[in-house]
Amino acid sequence: MPENYWGIPPDVAWTGDADRVVVLRLSGDGETPQAMEGPAAAIWRVIARGPVTVGEIADRLAEEYEAEPDSLRADVSSFVAQLAQRYFVAPTERIAG
């Protein structure tokens, strides 16, 4: 079964730098900003570049942190699932470019 591509929905705003990202869902009532640092911010920055799979995120983080992609995949998958539960990311299609 092919992996989902994950992207940021249009109702999610974010700002940040290399070390920290703050994300807010604009369409929800009573939403609170979510601050992310370290590997969480790194995952967000990869997703922000365009729709990606969990495997692609793990590959990019492996390069950044000099780790094996397979050792990161479960943690990346779990974190992406948490982001999806808060509607910060959603399955999407990759647009050929």
Automatic annotation (TrEMBL):
Gene3D superfamilies: Coenzyme PQQ synthesis protein D (PqqD)
One Pfam family, short name: PqqD
Domain of life: Bacteria
InterPro entries for the chain: PQQD, PqqD_sf
Name recorded for this polypeptide: Pyrroloquinoline quinone biosynthesis protein PqqD
